[in-house]
Every structure is written in structure tokens, then in C-alpha cells.
Amino acid sequence: MGYGASIWQTGRAPAIDPAGNIYLATGNGDYDGVTAFGESVLKLSGDLSILDWYTPEPWSAWNDNDLDLGSTGMILIPNTNLMLSGGKSGHLFLMSRDSMGNLGPLNTSTCKAFK
Q: Does residue 25 contact residue 69 with C-beta atoms inside 8 Å?
């Protein structure tokens, strides 16, 4: 179980795709990739099961410096499989909804971070 994570998104609702999958970003908190997903973007099923996620490798440093990934909500880009989000670190994240990458570097084949 994690400590301190939350869904903040500056008051934005989660994004929902046409298949009913839910996308949201979390703020500070522990990460273990099993039950704790602080500083992560999550893809949930309609019954709230975790289907996929992306957590940037510097999540722990961002926790230590209050640089929440989840400070903004997710934007699903129409007619694509892409979504966009930003965080207090100053990064914008453009990622694939089809394969989010789990724990990984800021730039992967499925997620690009721009600062």
C-alpha cells in the first residue's frame, strides 16, 4: 500500500475514451507498480481495474521536491491514440493510450516528455 498519492488534476475530471477506459494522473506518493502508483498516469477499466500505466523514472525525486506529475488532467487527442498531460516539473507528456510503458525514462517509444 502506498502513502500520500492522490488524484488532484487541478480539479479536472478523469478523461474517458470511447471504449469506456478512464485516464488520470496521480500526484505525490509511493510507487511499486503493484498497488502503489504515485506520480503516475493510469489507464483504468470501467470497473476501476488498472489496465496500464506510465511512471517516469524520476518519480521519487519529483516526490521529494513536490513536482507532481498529476497536477494537470489528461487530454485525449481526438482521432488519435494519443493523450497529453503536464506536471509541476515543467514537462509536457505526449503518450500512447495503447501502450503506456509502465516505469520508464522520460522519453520512450510510447511517451515523449518535452520541457
A: yes
77: which residues sit within 8 A by CB, 6+ positions away? 83, 84
Indicate the pairing of strand 50-56 with strand 102-104.
parallel
Q: Distance (Å, rounded) from C-alpha 14 to C-alpha 34?
A: 21
Q: pLDDT tens for residues 2-48? A: 566 678 788 889 999 999 999 999 988 889 999 899 999 999 999 99
CB atoms within 10 A of CB 20: 10
* pTM of the complete model: 0.91
16: number of CA atoms within 13 Å, CB side? Answer: 8
29 φ/ψ sector (left φ>0, alpha ψ -120 to 50, else beta): left
